[in-house]
Specification:
The structure holds 2 protein chains of 2 kinds. Chain A is α+β, with helices and mostly antiparallel strands. Chain A has 32 helices and 34 strands. In chain A, a hairpin with a 5-residue loop joins β27 (656-661) and β28. In chain A, α18 (612-624) packs across α22 and α21 (678-694) packs across α23. The longest helix of chain A is centred in the C-terminal third of the chain and has 24 residues, at 745-768. Chain A is globular and about 110 Å long. Chain A starts with 16 loop residues before the first strand and ends with a strand. In chain A, 54% of the residues are buried. By secondary structure, chain B is α/β, with parallel strands linked by helices. Chain B has helices at residues 15-31, 47-53, 73-83, 105-113, 146-158, 187-202, 208-211, 224-234, 254-262; strands at 6-11, 34-40, 64-69, 88-92, 99-100, 103-104, 118-121, 133-138, 161-167, 214-220, 239-244, 267-271, 278-281. In chain B, the strands form 2 sheets. In chain B, strands 3-2-1-4-7-12-11-8-9-10 form a 10-stranded mixed β-sheet, with helices on both faces. A two-stranded antiparallel sheet of chain B has the order 5-6. In chain B, β1, α1 and β2 form a beta-alpha-beta unit. In chain B, α8 runs parallel beside α9. Chain B is globular. Classes of the chains: A alpha+beta, B alpha/beta. At the A-B interface, α11, β7, α12, β12 and α16 of A face α6, β10 and β13 of B. β7 of chain A pairs antiparallel with β13 (278-281) of chain B.
């Protein structure tokens, strides 16, 4: 398997290869190059000076060489130096302008001089470099060489060192393959590919700033600068992890140690360098900061027009507004809910910065250097912009966080530096958005307070749900002693201005008078306490990681991705039992912020084992929305409680019933709302699993029994009796390609669990909480015969048995559908579009996601391995994984079965869903179920953790299940009030 | 300020070029843009005489600046474009000279060498002035479309409706599970978001006012060029905006070539610039 998030070759763990630059690192040819450049440039400069009547300023073979030429191709180097001297020449040699009249002519002349010198003087190597290469190769570390020089192979040949390299990329290769020159990383990445190692596993050694920058941009695991004479600072500033004067300072242990240090650091960060407007919406999702009360997308501090710079507040929904005036597919809903869609609020970190009258933002014409870093360990997002216009250099760096301690509080710090000029600095820290009606169609602005220069209060009310939301903010300039919303500060050269902002958010769900609460809270905050507020937030994140971090030895990319997943899960949830986690968390508008079974079946296990207090609140959400579920059951004509497939804050069903395509008028029905009733049993299952792991009898007594009872009543009334058996007809299982089916294996099994556990729970309550039992049974008018009925229905509910080949039928009649696989076992062409060809898919043996396999995953003790294997072999090739929920379950099952290649592949797909370069729709928010599913695949699949009387234990063969290249996995799991370390190692 | 403050149109006395001039003159008047007329000639004439020779209606003369250049037509066009920093070149795909396929040699040279937007009038051009609607095809690739941005800005300036068309993938071009849409979640819920996201990403940088010109998004099926041709004809589209990579070499620009063979409205061709440096340091690039 090729490069990816998990490397399978353990070569020294962290380090697999080292790439060397040639000139100045391996060979002493830098001097030859510098001399040749000097000769040709001086010739040109002399003639130019004479022609212009100006003094001759020669080419400096040290400083000019290092600054403008070193490490670059001949053409780039020539162009760079001439630009610096303000000399314009055409690129190509002109037939009517011989001599040094073009960039091309200069480059060729330099080459001729260098070649002559090489022929005359030969190529000498640095002995210490040679020794290092030999030592590395002696330890089976691969070596590569990269040079921009078109004479590269000749130099290596003359130096007698060709055989020391497993891969070479030189100037000829660069031209032939159309690679970009340094500081672009193309050539290094090409060499990495030839070495068969991921850049993060490679150390790169360079003596030129352009090369160091290329190494950083390429994501190499360690970049070492070699200071051959006076550019240590420049090499460090370009991004070198360490700078040495000679390679005798290096050895393999040191390289390994430094690489591990860097990998450790980077595995806690998500770092974006550069800017691509086409990827910005995706980046905004990845860089969201949140605390479960609110989430703020990672938009730029000065968002571009059209940015999705949303802030979402958990529990604040309103009536759906049209997506866009021209929405092609329109979602049609049954009723007219006032709590249908998560509301977007104005961006609370907005900054308008002008320096010397020039706007300092990415969209302002000039292209600044940009870098954005999410430090997951501390929950802080930092951003850096470096601008240069007409020689004036400015830097803007910001940090922002959503406090994990004070949920209403957002902190932001904005640092402005004038590096080499003086100018007026103007900062606009107002948050009031333009065009509220269009940009925030859910909101009605309320304006009560008189305007105040010291702080700003935005007060809104949602139009349908009538919730009030207040955003209040203050900004100060450190050292000024005042607050202001707009700042004008004259700045001298080298000035560094630090602005700080408090933003406080309250809603009418928090306080009867949210404006009063917000202003009081805002004004009580002290600027002197800014750093300590931030420190407390960081400490809370560290506490979280103590219980949630997973350490995978020598797999920093895997650790990074796992931390990313855990970060976003934690950012989306806290202790408010009135809300749950939307499918795309609070990081995006996807799914309108609706809550699905994703929480109970995919995310909850993570919280149960790491943050059981949060898990409890997530289940309490289902308790507090029981009335909505009861209503739903009644609407469907049944008893008890039937949870809505999609819900928000009241439990009412907000699932769309159809999609209408505007251009054709075609209405495509959506069956999930009325038929995907397994969610009711999923909630019951979650209650049981929570209680099993936490031992929280109080929850079961006060809330769980009622939830199990009401949901069991639903199932008992929903089942259809046919002779001695009961059936569930007209349902949809987890696989949404098939609707109106009967006896879906998954649904039936979960329903049976629900009925059985409800009967057991009522027995338990009768014995362990007689007072609560009496109150509950009176309140619910629970007859003594009901638990008996539930047992009876559970016992008689149809259970599909494996057929002769051990395959369980997904639903009645599945085996009679049109085959999806060809006779040779290869998949046929999939239908073009799942939306428009839904009818065709319904009659095909094609699955959207794990359905029977989901069942086998949840109940490993019920199905012998040969049954699991047979069903995996049958259903996996028929699954197109159009749901992000699917790969993780396949990974888990494959891991348990020892299908190593499948397990690793599906795990990688799930692990990197939102972070991978192939993101397709993460702009709408991160995929929360996938984040949780990935954790389950690792813990429940690869490690095979199960609960015992002595706590959670890994499977006996867990070490053998680990993916190739993994040597150990360590984590902690919470179980019944204690934390248990789990360590699996080969 | 309008999206194009200056236009350039090349005339050679042909009917095709005259149609290009009418289109350019209309655009220039509506955009209040300076309109340069280029005539590549070995024998310059007095201005009025040359304009008459080029079949320029007298009513247009006041708004035009005539350049008579003694060089090859393509060199004249490219040179003047740079010299006067022209925003839009208006060109007939065919003129008096030799042509290969659906693009004449002058048009081809200009298309491949300029980095300015080019409004190309195809062989089957049917005049539809004033314009009312621009069609923008969208791909699902994660790339910002300069053509979409330019088209939306032009639509705003000319008060045109913008129609966006997304052609769904042709199933015949895919094989096996690997090619199936891997992570597009439930089409019922993701689809609206997907389309909105595609639109948003494509016109990234356009102002909200400009985006308000978008009135329709259509889902089309089948071969991309055929679907766009049908859509253009069905809706009597005034102009179609395409982003392209700037070469008509064999095997490239298939969509553009196919459209040129049959479309009756002008094609606004905008070259796609390579994006600036960007790297997300995750996975193998984590270092």
């Amino acid at each position: 398997m090729g490069t990816g998030f998990a490397d399978e070759t353990p070569m020294h763990g962290a380090l697999q290869a080292v790439i060397f630059d040639m000139d100045g690192v391996l060979t002493r040819t830098a001097e030859l190059h510098a001399a040749a450049w000097k000769e040709v440039f001086d010739q040109l400069l002399r003639s130019q000076a004479k022609a212009r009547g100006m003094p001759f300023v020669p080419f400096d073979a040290d400083s000019d060489y290092l600054t403008y030429v070193d490490g670059r191709s001949r053409m780039d180097g020539a162009r760079n130096f001439l630009d610096a001297r303000g000399i314009e020449l055409p690129e190509e040699a002109q037939p009517d302008a011989p001599g040094l009249g073009s960039i091309e002519a200069i480059a060729e002349h330099k080459d001729a001089l260098f070649t002559e010198a090489l022929r005359r003087d030969g190529a000498r190597v640095y002995e210490s470099t040679l020794q290092l290469i030999q030592a590395l190769r002696g330890q089976a570390v691969r070596t590569g060489i990269v040079t921009s020089s078109r004479n590269g192979r000749e130099v290596l040949r003359r130096a007698g060192v060709e055989a020391l390299f497993d891969a070479r990329v030189d100037g000829i290769d660069i031209d032939e393959r159309g690679l970009k020159g340094k500081p672009d990383p193309d050539a290094f990445l090409e060499c990495a590919a030839a070495l068969g190692a991921a850049p993060v596993r490679i150390a790169l050694i360079e003596d030129a700033t352009a090369g160091v920058e290329a190494g950083r941009r390429g994501g190499f695991g360690l970049v070492i600068g070699v200071d051959r004479g006076g550019n240590r600072e420049a090499l460090a500033a370009s991004g070198a992890d360490m700078v040495v004067e000679d390679l005798r300072e290096l050895d393999l242990p040191l390289l390994l140690a430094r690489m591990r240090d860097r990998q450790r650091l980077m595995s806690w960060r998500i770092l974006q360098e550069g800017f691509d407007p086409g990827r910005e919406d995706d980046m905004e999702s990845l860089f969201t900061v949140g605390n479960g009360y609110l989430g703020v997308r990672g938009a730029l501090d000065s968002p571009l027009p059209g940015a999705l710079d949303d802030m979402f507040i958990a529990g604040i929904y309103d009536r759906t507004q049209p997506l866009l005036p021209y929405s092609e597919p329109q979602l049609l809903t049954e009723g007219d809910s006032a709590h249908e869609e998560l509301v977007s609020f104005p961006f609370p970190f907005r900054v308008g910065l002008t320096i010397g009258g020039v706007s300092q933002e990415l969209g302002s014409g000039h292209r600044p250097a940009h870098c954005r870093t999410l430090d997951m360990q501390s929950g802080i997002l930092a951003s850096e912009l470096r601008f240069e216009l007409d020689g004036n250099r400015n830097a803007l760096s910001t940090r922002r966080l959503a406090s994990l301690v004070d949920l209403h509080l957002l902190l932001q710090e904005i640092t402005v530096e004038l590096e080499n000029h003086s100018a007026l600095v103007e900062l606009d820290a107002t948050l009031a958005p333009q065009d509220v009606a269009r940009r925030f169609p859910h909101l009605e602005p309320l304006d009560e307070l008189p305007r105040n220069a010291a702080f700003e209060v935005l007060h809104f009310r949602t139009k349908a749900a009538r919730e009030e939301v207040v955003i209040a903010a203050r900004t100060t300039l450190r050292g000024s002693g005042t607050d202001n919303l707009r700042w004008r500060v004259p700045g001298a050269i080298g000035t560094r201005l630090v602005f700080r902002r408090f933003v406080v958010v309250y809603t009418s769900r928090d306080a009867a008078h949210p404006t009063e609460a917000a202003v009081k809270h805002l004004l009580a905050l002290e600027w002197g306490g800014f750093d300590s507020y931030a420190a407390l937030h960081c400490a809370r994140w560290r506490e979280f990681w103590q219980g949630a971090d997973i350490r995978v030895a020598d797999q920093p990319q895997v650790e990074q991705a796992l931390r990313f997943n855990a970060y976003h899960l934690r950012s989306a949830a806290d202790h408010d039992p009135r809300v749950s986690i939307p499918a795309r968390t609070l990081s995006g508008r996807g799914y309108q912020g609706h809550v699905f079974w994703d929480v109970e079946m995919f995310m909850l296990p993570f919280f149960v084992y790491t943050q059981p207090d949060i898990a409890r609140q997530l289940l309490l959400y289902r308790y507090y929305t029981l009335d909505g579920a009861r209503q739903r059951a009644r609407e469907l004509g049944f008893r008890g409680a039937c949870y809505a497939w999609e819900s928000t804050v009241t439990g009412e069903d907000v699932t769309p019933r159809a999609v209408r395509l505007k251009t054709t008028g075609q209405e495509i029905p959506i069956y999930t709302g009325s038929q995907q009733i397994h969610i009711t049993a999923d909630v019951a299952h979650a209650v049981c699993r929570y209680r099993e792991v936490t031992g929280d009898d109080e929850f079961l007594r006060d809330f769980g029994v009622e939830m199990l009872t009401e949901t069991a009543r639903f199932w008992a009334s929903r089942c259809t009796r046919d002779g001695d058996a009961y059936h569930l007809r007209g349902v949809m299982g987890p696989d949404e390609y098939h609707w109106d089916v009967s006896d879906n294996a998954y649904t039936n099994r979960l329903a049976r669990l629900n009925l059985e556990q409800a009967a057991l729970a009522t027995d338990w309550l009768r014995h362990h909480g007689s007072r609560q039992w009496q109150q509950l049974s009176e309140r619910l008018a629970l007859g003594p015969e009901e638990p008996h009925d539930w047992r009876h229905v559970a016992g008689a509910l149809y259970r599909p048995s494996p057929r002769s080949d051990r395959v369980i039928e997904q639903f009645a009649g599945f085996f009679d559908l049109d085959p999806y696989l060809r006779p040779d076992g290869k998949p046929a062409q999939p239908p073009v579009n799942k939306l428009l060809d839904a009818q065709r898919i319904n009659g095909l043996q094609l699955l959207k996601q794990a359905d029977v396999l989901m069942l086998l995953y949840l109940f490993p003790e019920e199905f012998p391995p040969e049954v699991v294997l047979a069903n995996y072999r049958y259903y996996e090739p028929r699954t197109d994984h159009a749901s992000s929920l699917s790969p993780a379950i396949h990974a888990a099952i494959a891991a348990r079965l020892g299908l190593r290649e499948h397990a690793a592949r599906y795990f990688q797909q799930s692990l990197s869903l939102d972070l991978s370069d192939r993101m397709g729709n993460s702009a709408s928010g991160v995929h929360a179920a996938c984040l949780g599913g990935t954790w389950q695949a690792l813990v429940g699949g690869f490690l095979g953790v199960r609960s015992t009387d002595n706590g959670p234990v890994a499977a006996a063969d867990a070490a053998a299940r680990l993916p190739d290249g993994w040597t150990s996995v360590e984590l902690e799991l919470a179980w019944r009030g204690r934390r248990y370390p789990i360590r699996v190692s080969r | 300020m309008s999206v194009f403050s200056s236009l350039l149109v090349c005339l050679d006395g042909s009917q095709a070029a005259a149609r290009a001039l009418r289109c350019a003159a209309w655009l220039g008047a509506r955009l209040e843009a300076r309109t340069h007329v280029v005539s590549a000639t070995s024998c310059p004439l007095p201005v009025r005489q040359e304009l008459t020779r080029l079949r320029v209606p007298e009513s247009n003369w006041p708004q035009l600046t005539l350049h008579q250049v003694m060089s090859l037509p393509e060199e004249a066009i490219l040179g003047l474009t740079d010299r006067y920093d022209v925003g839009l070149i208006v060109l007939s795909a065919h003129g008096e000279g030799a042509s290969l396929g659906n693009v004449g040699h002058v048009a081809r040279a200009v298309l491949e060498q300029t980095n300015r937007p080019v409004l190309l009038l195809p062989k089957a051009y049917r005049e539809r002035l004033p314009w009312t609607q621009v069609l923008i095809p969208l791909s699902a690739e994660a790339e910002v479309s300069p053509a979409a941005r330019v088209a939306v800005a032009l639509a705003h300036d000319l008060a045109l409706d913008v129609r966006i068309a997304h052609v769904l993938d042709d199933p015949e071009s895919r094989t096996g599970l690997e090619a199936a849409v891997p992570y597009a979640d439930a089409p019922y819920h993701e689809y609206p978001e997907q389309l909105a996201e595609i639109v948003r990403r494509t016109v990234s940088g356009a102002s909200p006012e400009q985006c308000r010109r978008i009135t329709d998004v259509a889902l089309l099926r089948g071969d991309v060029a055929a679907a766009l041709l049908r859509e253009a004809e069905r809706n009597d589209v005034s102009v179609i905006a395409i982003g392209w990579h700037g070469t008509l070499l064999g095997g490239r620009a298939r969509l553009v070539k196919h459209l040129l063979s049959a479309i009756t409205c002008p094609i606004l061709l905008v070259k796609i610039e390579p994006p600036g440096p960007f790297v997300l340091k995750v996975g193998p690039r984590m270092g």
